[in-house]
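Notes from the 1:1 (GR / supervisor)

We went over the backlog. Supervisor wanted to see one worked example end to end before approving the batch request, so GR pasted a single chain during the call. The sequence is below; no edits were made to it. Supervisor asked that the structure be written out right there so they could see what the output format looks like.
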Amino acid sequence: MTIAAWPVVDRHRVVHAYKPGEPSASEGPFRTLRGHAWASSGVRVTRRAGGHLVGQMTVFSSLNVESARLARHGNPDAAVRVARAAATLEAGPEFTRLQRILSDLPGHDAERVVEGVIPEAAPAALAEALKAVARRTEQLRAGESILTTLAEVIAGRIAEVHEGYVVLVRVSGPAAMVPRWMAIAAQRDKVGELLALVMDKLDNASAVVEAVPAIDVDDDAVERAFSPFGRGDARVRDLTGADERLLASEPQPLRILVPVLIDA
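Structure output shown during the call:
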């Protein structure tokens, strides 16, 4: 299992990465980012309801959060490169397919997807499109080594939910306790859901910690050899989406074949 932060964001997330603590709805910070080519233009999604146009929204690659963070940390050249990678991704086939699916969703479902929620009535193609964008995002992130040191990301699956906190189990490494209010804000406060904590250093004594929705970017169609005794395999400890679907299906009758010896 490979877990990554949610691959699409709105403008508020981009501004928050550039100016943490300031109102994310203000126009000035985003104009600054665009003016210096530290953010892409995003992709317009038309929203419809009952066959009628009800508005538009702009969806951004999550790479814009990285480029805004780079700009804040005083790395303008790297910010331009990552923003350019975001624009390339938004113009690519993976993002175009996602844009088309989002445009077909009813009402405000497209906004919910950007927030990290896949509506129950959404087509199966939506999850696959998000995974494809997430995989491409991780490929582009890997090309910028500076991003690995810019912020620390702890991603995993929620294993326990308590009144004041949730327990986040990583694919590798120790579990972490996350305040439940943060998990709720990220739309991830139920057992089995995927969550990421992003720790963005401000100075030597402080940091911004943000809880964001996460996604499993592995291809469900690709099956790897599995052994229940392989402790190094995360599948021994965690349930995958395929496991959850199997457990939710109708149980099959148990068949036991007993050899019988018949004397002639």
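Supervisor's comment: Residues 3-244 form one domain.
Batch request approved.
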